[in-house]
Each structure stands twice: as structure tokens, then as C-alpha cells.
Design goal:
Length: 139
């Protein structure tokens, strides 16, 4: 069990760091892209990457919880909520671009950009906040 927990923690931590990088990449891609069609194409490539890392984090989190016999801490509860919020925001971001942004309309991509940057900002805040909380625990 100990080995399972330790390996899970290592993969979990790497997954969190890479996810932070993917969110940062998404923010840069959004800020630098002026062409909505090219952005939509790139988004279709990047979205599965962030989804895979979210899945990796959730899976390794669940494995560690099993290894420590479901001894939930406040941090673990916060992480589970953060994981769910992350999935919801990513789904909303993709749906907003795919279904609610008519990229032929003037200003539609700018409106999408504003919403997507809000979602990505919340995601970055969640991952960074949890990581700092875990690395520098209070008390
Ligand atoms: C976006 C979601 C998440 C983030 C950003 C996150 C972040 C972290 C970080 C930074 C650590 C500390 C790593 C270290 O000490 O090296 C950690 C540990 C841990 N995480 Fe997560 N995590 C997330 C989701 C989850 C989920 C969904 C679960 C459970 C199902 C989970 C369970 C754990 C456990 C068990 C530990 C080891 C510390 C302990 O025993 O409490 N995490 N996580």
C-alpha cells in the first residue's frame, strides 16, 4: 500500500504541474490568437491533452485515497471539489466555442475570449492555490 501511495503521489504531483503548464498554454494561445478558425482547430488538439491530465490527477488521487483507507482530509475534499469544478469549466469553455460562438459574426470571438479567459483564470487559481496549500500547509 505504501508503495502504491508513494508512486501515486509522484505521478499526481507531476500531473498537477503539467496541468498548470497546459492551462498557461491555453491562456497564451487565447491571448495570442487573432484568427478564430485557427484557434478552434488548435483548441480541438489541446483539449484532449488537458482532459487526459485531469483524468490522471483524479485517478492517482483516488488510488492514494484507497491506499490511505479513505482517510479524507480537508485538503482532499478541496481537491475533489477543484477536480469537479475543473471538468465543468473545461466543458463550458469548449461548449461556448463550439455551440455558442458564431465565428462569422463580428466581435463573437472577442466575447468568447473574455469568457474563456475567466474560466481559465479560475482554473489556474484552483491549481495554483491547491498546490501552494499542499506545499506550504497552514499551521
Ligand atoms: C485539480 C485537482 C487537484 C489538484 C490541483 C491537486 C493537487 C495536489 C497537490 C499539489 C498535492 C501534494 C503533492 C505533494 O505533496 O507532493 C496533492 C496530494 C494529494 N492529492 Fe491532490 N490534487 C487534485 C485532485 C485530487 C483528487 C480529485 C483527489 C482524490 C480523489 C486527490 C487526492 C490527493 C491525495 C490523497 C494527496 C496526498 C496527500 C494526502 O495524503 O492527503 N487530489 N494533490
Amino acid at each position: 500500500m505504501e508503495a502504491m501511495y508513494t508512486l501515486g503521489l509522484e505521478i499526481h504531483t507531476v500531473g498537477v504541474m503539467v496541468l498548470m503548464g497546459v492551462v498557461m498554454f491555453n491562456i497564451m494561445m487565447l491571448l495570442l490568437n487573432k484568427n478564430s478558425i485557427r484557434y478552434a482547430k488548435r483548441m480541438r488538439m489541446v483539449m484532449p491533452i488537458s482532459a487526459s491530465f485531469i483524468a490522471l490527477i483524479l485517478l492517482t488521487g483516488a488510488i492514494m485515497m484507497a491506499a490511505k483507507h479513505l482517510h479524507f482530509t480537508l485538503a482532499n475534499d478541496a481537491m475533489i471539489v477543484a477536480g469537479i469544478v475543473f471538468i465543468v469549466l473545461e466543458a463550458k469553455r469548449y461548449a461556448t466555442l463550439k455551440r455558442r460562438t458564431d465565428i462569422t459574426k463580428e466581435g463573437a470571438f472577442e466575447a468568447y475570449k473574455h469568457k474563456a479567459l475567466t474560466y481559465l483564470g479560475i482554473e489556474m487559481g484552483l491549481v495554483l492555490g491547491l498546490t501552494l496549500f499542499m506545499m506550504f500547509p497552514l499551521g
